[in-house]
Fold:
Amino acid sequence: MSSSTVTPRPAIDKVAIREKYLAERDKRLRADGNAQYLRIADQLAHYLEDPYTPRVERAAKTDHVTFTFIGGGFAGLVTGARLVEAGITDVRIVEKGGDFGGTWYWNRYPGAQCDTASMIYMPLLEETGHMPTEKYAHAPEILEQCQRIGRQYGLYDNALFHTEISALTWDEAASHWVVETHRGDRFTSDFVGLGTGPLHVPKLPGIPGIESFKGHSFHTSRWDYGYTGGDPKGGALTGLADKRVAIIGTGATSVQCVPHLAKACRELLVVQRTPSSVDVRANVPIDPDWFASIATPGWQGRWLENFTANQAGGNAEIDLVQDGWTDLSRRIRAKILDLPKDQRSPMNMLAAYEDSDYEKMEEIRARVDSLVSDHETAQNLKAWYRQLCKRPCFHDSYLQAFNTPGTRLIDTDGKGVERITEKGLVVAGVEYEVDCIIYASGFEVGTDYTRRTGFDLTGVGGLKLSEAWASGMRSKHGIHVHGFPNAFFVQPTQGANLISNVPHNLTDSGRTIATVVAHARARGAQRVEVTQAAQDAWIDLLLTGAGRMLGSPDCTPGYYNNEGQAAGPGAELYVGYPAGATAYFAYIDDWRKSGRFDGLAFS
Ligand code: NDP
Structure:
């Protein structure tokens, strides 16, 4: 086709789209916010049971260890690895699951895979010598990488699985932590680390009648392969061949498992409240020859740095990773660079960002039309909000799954399921009888930190973490908190805050913690704590930044914006280093290397 015959794209009617965005948001706003969801407890507690690993009886621990880490996901594994590399081998990881892996332990639903390129998402690839098999690895390979890290660094020897913390209390006289668990352990630890993750407590929608359903049901993070047949490696879900199944929810999890369900079920009903934006995935196997050519010493660090530069400031001349996230940020940057230099005011830059967003979302909506045969279904699968209002999704067979005979979209027009009955579910007054309901309803995010962890850290003088953070999180680097000596938090906020590749934040924090602990031991210090002044100065610095990127009240409700409710106390503190993630990683590297550890008091 010659260029003269290409049909020009119609101009985007921004006013009409903005109105549509607001109308779709308004339809979904509800006064109960997070309270619409059910806490899984009591008669619903079976939804939390571990279907993957039997619980092994063991004697309670009453000993002393150098370092205890709460959580055996990426945060615990990378911190444990860095500690071992620094010569601190007496590390005990306490984990509620039956093995390492965290989110990848629990999420074994069919089709689960990473949404950020494996080369940067999977931690410690260079250290373990593992080559990812695909650009976006599937869950079993990521879980195996977690287990590989555990084995290589000897972290299994001292780990406590199927164990939940009941109390963590600082003993000032002895300068150590007292660790208590639901399994009767009561041991002491010089240092503690916390990496409990943001999305680890499954939630159920508070749909009236949910307890009355007499068929089979489970949450996607506790996939029942005993019922569905198949396995996490892609084995066919043969148990569903004669079943009518409903999956409730159309977020990132549902997008990945619906294509597998569509192939397997006699009938599949995909029950939607808000559509996801589903962009191209383009997964490919990784070629070992190509990998050998790039995997020269320091390769993963260079890839991480390059991804971050493309996302959050830095030299982004080249894009090694080339995934959905770098595409997004490169488009935004290109729009901003189109502005004449003297017109790059914050207002104009935000408008350029918005223009890039309209273009991207129009493309994503057009993609639905090009892939879904039924017109009405296609219209209902279109996402009407700015891309970062909800978690962007990427998939090459989700939308096509709606062309499978027997697969139907039940769109609830933003209202959700009305009722659950003994036999199925009701949407807009119509009852759909099903054999099985799968809840792809996500995880608690906006609830209290202590509700999600199940314990409250008790620091100096009995100070509780919930009190210290009553008006918002306060820390230095997102790691050290005044009043809680020898305790370290491993999470992105108040540090790099690089949301598009969380493992990078975690791996870097692990390095910081290992450096600080090694320094404390080398100088014979028993106690390390951030000073109040240093913590306050860090918070003041954070507040000079541009503020939060996610969570606009104009967005359709979801966990990115506290379900459309007021952001709550301290929301302005959920930010990162004002100069961006690339600058943060450079800053913290200098901080570690200086050997001064400015802001920390060792005694
Ligand atoms: P989400 O919270 O994103 O999705 C929950 C879904 O349930 C939404 O579609 C929600 O609709 C729907 N829902 C809630 N209540 C009702 C109701 N009453 N009736 C009908 N539908 C309802 O959970 P996910 O498990 O999909 O994803 C959680 C997060 O986990 C992701 O955002 C992502 O960060 C992470 N994840 C990452 C993956 C990866 O990296 N590969 C893969 C999967 C998940 P509504 O939108 O209207 O609230």
User: Anything to note?
Assistant: The pocket of NDP is lined by residues 28, 113-115, 199, 205, 207, 248-254, 256, 271, 273-274, 391, 412, 416-417, 440-443, 558-559 (CB under 6 Å).
